[in-house]
Amino acid sequence: MHIPDGFLSPSVWSIAWLFSAGGLAYCVKKVREILKDKMVPLMGVMAAFIFAAQMLNFPVAGGTSGHLLGGVLAAVLLGPCAGAIVISCVLVVQCLIFQDGGLTALGANIFNMAFVGTVVGYFLYRVLAKVIGGAKGIMTGAAIASWFSVVLASSVCALELALSGTSPLKIALPAMAGVHTLIGIGEAIVTCLVIGFVLKVRPDLIYNYQEEK
Amino acid sequence: MQHSYIDKYWDLESPVHKIDPRFKIIGCVGFILFAIFTAPTSFLTFASYGLLLAVLIALSKVPLRFILMRCLVIVPFVLMVAMFIPFMKKGQFAGGYSLGSLKLTVTYDGLFIFWNVLIKAFLSIMALTLLISTTKFTQFLKALQRLNIPQVFIMILSFMYRYIFVITDELELMLRAKKARSIGGSRWFHFKTLSNMLGVLFLKSYEKGETVYLAMCSRGYNGDIKTIDEMYIKKSDVAFLIIMFSTLSCIRFFIN
Question: Under an 8 A CB cutoff, do A175 and B80 touch?
Answer without folding.
Answer: yes
